[in-house]
Specification:
The complex is a heterodimer of chains A (about 280) and B (about 800). By secondary structure, chain A is an alpha+beta fold. Chain A has helices spanning about 15-25, 35-40, 80-85, 85-90, 90-100, 105-110, 110-120, 125-130, 150, 225-230, 235-245, 260-280, and strands at about 5-10, 30, 50-55, 65, 70-75, 135-140, 145-150, 155, 160, 165-175, 180-185, 195-200, 205-215, 220. In chain B, helix 16 runs parallel beside helix 17 (about 555-585), helix 17 (about 555-585) crosses helix 18 and helix 19 packs across helix 20.
């Protein structure tokens, strides 16, 4: 469990980090909280020559109110996202999902932006970010650009972030007063979700936004269910037919924890439960 | 008459916190990987990615040229000094046993086998250079899974001509211990009940906390090996026997060892390679495995297919039990190897008065990681089979599972009882343990809730599982082991040394790796010698300090090692008495011994044992003919196993929509005889329960069809944490069934929880959904398996092939390496 030797850089600003990235290119890897990267390095599944640590860049940390959106710094820890009063008020779904990430130790080290940039389809934050219509602010040599959630997640472990770019913050449109629930299905507590459903609803039910975790190579929206839920009543009967559409368009993996058809079944059941809990039913 | 009976026990029965825990938990201690010697070199292993392949060439030139690399060695570079890994328990005279070289030169037989070793000045440099070793393999077809192996079409070791290693049989009619099981089966077929099932014991990984590590220092007169092992004495014996170095030139030390669970009851290729490298280079060498290597190449456990036939009359009185096991040895017959399933042979009849019994065990070789002991070793498999079958019988007869057991169990008046497997159970009280467990569990209320949920058609169904286990532990009477062709005895050794200032050093041949021996043995000696608990030092795990012993496994340390200790302490007291009589100018017959003090009957004159120790050190005044020492040794060979038992009750909730299971309540009442330290016992029971529950629900080692370990990290090999378990009710009977064959009256507890809990959990899960047409769910009971079992009989089953007759070709979530 000894990684291949690497150099370590600790820039104190995004500009310095971008410069380092520009200098080392392919040989470099950004490290945020390190909760996914370090195991990869220690198992020698990857061997970058340079690690660029964003941990010393204070401007990347914290949550601020920016009118109709919250701005969450990429280096904000899961623990801080979970407990942030602004997040609880305006994007409750993110607080609920952050609370379910791995275990307490990892939540204190792992970061919001790091997890999203890692883009593990079984990660807990992609589906809620997608459901909330998050926008990803990416800094590069030519300045910053903003990418919609739907365009951010490209494939397994692949995002719209370019090799010379860094995710700096995530802008989350306010969903003030929306109910929310993250329904995560695991066999043991510290496991990646077999399937999870992120649901947030306005009223009961005027509008619903639903993200699916680990149901394809990227986080997915359960759009058919969302459409069917508009105007539905927040009762078991009221959501059943809509939830039955939740697996449409999904392509989940088959592994030791379940075959694809079982995961699709789970997505339908868990979507119903998540929506009801989000609606406070 | 022994010392314990002469005075009230002050320490025995007290829940002392473990004196060893601070250093073990903080890690500021002597773990093997913490040991650093001057000039020490570091090893990294190059391992085969293929399950079965010829090694056609190995190019080490690039690795040799890497920075600070001292040597790169392959199997061809070593001769006989490398030794071999031994099988100490050939279960039949004609057992097929492939030669197990620590580093084969020509052919690998499982993925993870070592083909080369890199020696460098740092562990990182060794690891870097290991990636530069270029090995050419010619892949051979690999045989994976018990049923494939039995077909003998692909051979794990072509030169053996078969994958079948040995067939071991016990038959009660032939042994004269019972009737003819075939006759009982015929009878049941005509006018009784016959239950036939095939159960799968999945492959498990011991997953001890401290990965294996070994340091060898060849520079002294004795070559010293520090190793994270349960069995330093066996390692020394095997090193001498296989490498040609005399025993007297070998010192093996098991320093603090972080868990074993049977996984460190082994003599490993890595130990042998490190030994050979250090000797070859004349320098100290260290090898510490990574977690990935540990999961892939440390021995695995369980892995059996159990074919079971239970015959009973219409009232549910069992008339015969026939057991056929097919057990996967993996690529080699490990140290105890085929002996593990054979240990179970004596336990399938459990606590019951079965009139006839037959046991067959066919061991097979496959191109997978070798298997050997894992906590319980043979007895969990037996207990699972019989306790699952008793629940099936209860369902068939239509009575409560506790009632069906009561109809068949040995009653407390019937002890000592000779079983159909030929063992004599000395004591037990199944009625008392069951009554207590039932009361604490709230059995009747939970049954009522179960009925109510069924009637309501609740989404969440409740099931209650029963496991009335017993086990044989305290390994083992040496003559019995001899009769089973085991390569060693089962005795244990202890020494008690009185220091000049009246402290006590206790030397035990057992080798703790987390059990708490230092605390429990100190309590025993404190009571026997009347010295403060703090004044007792327990020494172990070093062949120079504790030259004799047979180490720790099979719940033997207290019941065998503890008895040796009692006998040594008794000898100290006898010796001290002679000196006391002399110094007190009294007749030995007039002395009373209590609380570590000899007094002259009827006077206030007396001497404490510490004072006698000082007097012995001085040697100024002692009787003629007395050897000037109070120290004593004792070797104890047990006359019988002992037989702890208990009733475990488990309530599981099953979400019928998702198949998710949740433990609601778990109560166990274990009768383990006299308890030395209730806190340590509670710890053993809690940990044991979780390990057994984990087999029922979470853990499974899976090789794919090419022989790669799919569950090769803790991402896929699911170990539970405290977040996944509930608080268990751990209780004991008010009047324990004291063991009659040791002085302290103790029975083993190290494996009890693991042996008992697995069937309790699976019985509960099956019980929750039995009304939906389910009578079995394969372990681990994953949500998917539970869900498919529930819906197997639906008109619109989710997938047609999900109808879950086990081991069918392509059965969902089936361990492909095992069941086909």
């Amino acid at each position: 469990m000894i990684p291949v030797k690497f150099d370590y850089l600790a820039p104190s600003s995004v500009e310095e980090a971008l410069a380092a990235l520009g200098e080392h290119g392919d040989d470099a890897k950004i490290i945020a909280g390190g909760q996914s990267l370090l195991p990869v390095l220690r198992m020698r599944l990857n061997a970058p020559e340079v690690l660029i640590d964003l941990g010393g860049i204070d401007s990347l940390r914290g949550v601020r109110d920016d009118g109709d959106a919250l701005v969450i710094g990429a280096m904000t820890t899961h623990h801080d996202v979970r407990d942030d009063p602004l997040v609880k008020e305006h994007a409750l779904l993110l607080s609920k999902a952050a609370a379910e990430v791995a275990d307490a130790q990892i939540r204190h080290r792992g970061t919001f932006g790091g997890a999203l940039a890692h883009a593990d389809p079984a990660g807990d934050l992609g589906a809620p970010a997608l459901a909330l219509g998050a926008r990803f602010v990416i800094a590069g040599p030519g300045g910053t650009r903003t990418v919609e959630a739907a365009d951010f997640f490209v494939d397994l472990f692949e995002t719209a972030i370019g090799e010379d770019e860094i995710l700096t913050e995530v802008r989350v449109p306010k969903h003030t007063g929306w109910g929310a629930h993250y329904e995560k299905f695991v066999r043991v507590a510290h496991q990646w979700p077999i399937v999870a459903v992120a649901a947030t609803v306005r009223g009961s039910i005027d509008e619903a936004r639903i993200g699916l975790t680990n149901m394809g190579s990227t986080p997915l929206r359960a759009t058919a269910t969302e459409a069917a839920l508009a105007g539905a009543s927040a009762t078991e009967d009221g959501v059943r037919d809509a939830a039955a559409l939740a697996a449409e368009g999904t392509a989940p993996p088959t592994d030791l924890n379940g075959a694809a058809d079982y995961r699709q079944h789970l997505a339908r059941v868990l979507t119903g439960r998540a929506v009801l809990k989000a609606a406070g039913a | 008459m022994t010392a314990t009976q002469d005075r009230p026990a002050a320490e025995i029965g007290r829940d002392r916190r473990r004196k060893e825990d601070q250093r073990l938990i903080t890690g500021r201690t002597r773990w093997t990987d913490n040991i650093t010697l001057p000039g020490m070199l570091h090893l990294a292993m190059v391992r085969s990615p293929f399950a079965h392949a010829d090694i056609t060439s190995i190019d080490v030139s690039e690795a040799e040229a890497a920075p600070n690399v001292v040597a790169v060695l392959t199997g061809k570079d070593f001769g006989e000094e490398l030794g071999v890994c031994i099988n100490a328990w050939p279960i039949t005279p004609d057992q097929k046993t492939p030669t197990h070289s620590p580093m084969p030169a020509d052919r690998v037989a499982f993925a993870g086998e070592v083909v080369a070793v890199v020696v460098a000045r740092s562990a990182a440099e060794a690891r870097d250079a290991a990636e530069l070793v270029d090995v050419d393999y010619a892949e051979r077809p690999a045989v994976l899974g018990i049923k494939n192996a039995l077909e003998d079409s692909i051979l794990a070791h072509p030169d053996l001509g078969t994958n079948k290693s040995a067939l071991w049989v016990f038959d009660s009619a032939e042994a004269g211990t019972g009737g003819d099981v075939e006759a009982a089966i015929e009878q049941a077929r005509t006018d009784g009940i016959l239950i036939e099932r095939e159960y799968r014991q999945q492959r498990l990984i011991p997953a001890f906390m401290e990965p294996r590590s070994v340091v060898v220092d060849p520079t002294g007169e004795q070559i010293t090996m520090w190793t994270a092992t349960q069995v330093p004495h066996i390692v020394r014996f095997a090193l001498a026997a296989t490498t040609g170095v005399p025993e007297s030139k070998i010192r093996v030390i098991a320093p603090d060892v972080g868990g074993g669970f049977g996984g460190k009851l082994q003599t490993t290729p890595e130990e042998w390679i490190t030994w050979a490298v250090a000797r070859r280079l004349g320098k100290p060498a260290k090898y510490t495995e990574t977690r990935s290597e540990s999961l892939m190449a440390g021995h695995h456990g369980r892995d059996q297919v159990q074919t079971l036939t239970l015959a009973a009359d219409r009232d549910g009185n069992v008339t015969g039990f026939k057991v056929h096991l097919d057990a996967d040895l993996g690529a080699y017959v490990a140290l105890v190897g085929g002996g593990v399933p054979v240990l179970g042979a004596f336990m399938f009849n459990a606590i019951y008065k079965f009139p006839s019994y037959r046991f067959e065990c066919q061991t097979v070789l496959t191109n997978s990681t070798w298997t050997d002991a894992y906590r319980g070793a043979g007895r969990p498999e037996a207990t699972y089979a019989v306790e699952r079958m008793m629940d099936e019988l209860a369902a068939e007869v239509g009575v409560d599972p506790l009632e069906i057991r009561e109809r068949n169990w040995i009653t407390h008046e019937e002890f000592p009882f000779t079983t159909v497997a030929g063992l004599e159970y000395d004591s037990g009280n199944y009625e008392a343990a069951t009554a207590r467990a039932r009361e604490v569990f709230g059995y009747d209320a939970l049954r009522a809730e179960q009925r109510e949920r069924r009637e309501r058609g609740d989404r969440v169904q409740l099931g209650i599982g029963v496991s009335t286990f017993t086990e044989m532990c305290g390994l083992a009477p040496s003559r019995v082991l001899g009769s089973l062709d085991y390569g060693a005895g089962g005795w244990e050794h202890a020494s008690v040394r009185m220091t000049p200032l009246g402290k006590v050093e206790v030397v035990t041949g057992t080798s703790a790796h987390g059990q708490g021996h230092e605390t429990a043995f100190s309590q025993i000696v404190a009571d026997l010698l009347g010295v403060p608990f703090e004044d007792v030092e327990v020494l172990h795990g070093d062949t120079q300090v504790a030259p004799k012993g047979l180490d720790t496994y099979g719940s033997r340390s207290l019941v065998v090692g503890g008895e040796a200790l009692v006998r040594a302490a008794d000898k100290v007291v006898e010796k001290a008495k002679v000196l006391a009589a002399h110094l007190l100018e009294a007749s030995a017959d007039d002395l009373e011994y209590a609380g570590g003090r000899f007094t002259v009957r009827g006077t206030d004159q007396g001497l404490a044992i510490q004072e006698l120790a000082t007097a012995t050190f001085a040697g100024h005044n002692y009787p003629d003919g007395m050897e000037l020492s109070l120290d004593a040794d004792a070797t104890y060979d047990p006359v019988n196993f002992n037989y702890p038992h208990g009733t475990h009750l488990c309530a599981m909730e099953v979400d019928t929509e998702t198949g998710a299971v949740r433990m609601r309540k778990y109560t166990c009442c274990d009768d383990i005889g006299v308890i030395i330290n209730p806190l340590i016992v509670a710890g053993q029971v809690h940990g044991g329960l979780v390990q057994g529950i984990a087999q029922a629900l979470w853990e499974e080692a899976v090789h794919d069809e090419s022989g790669t370990l799919v569950s090769g990290s803790f991402v896929d090999y699911l170990l539970p944490t405290s977040a996944d378990t509930i608080s268990f009710d751990v209780v004991h009977t008010d009047q324990p069934s004291v063991c009659t064959t040791n002085t302290l009256g103790t029975k083993g507890v190290g494996e009890a929880g693991t042996i008992a809990s697995t069937p309790a959990v699976v019985n509960a899960v099956v019980d929750a959904v039995r009304h939906l047409g389910v009578d079995d769910i394969q372990m681990p009971c994953t949500p998917e398996r539970v869900w498919r079992a529930i819906h197997a009989h639906d008109g619109d089953a989710p997938t047609p092939e999900a109808a879950m007759p086990h081991f069918d070709e392509g059965a969902p979530n089936q361990d492909e390496g095992a069941g086909q």
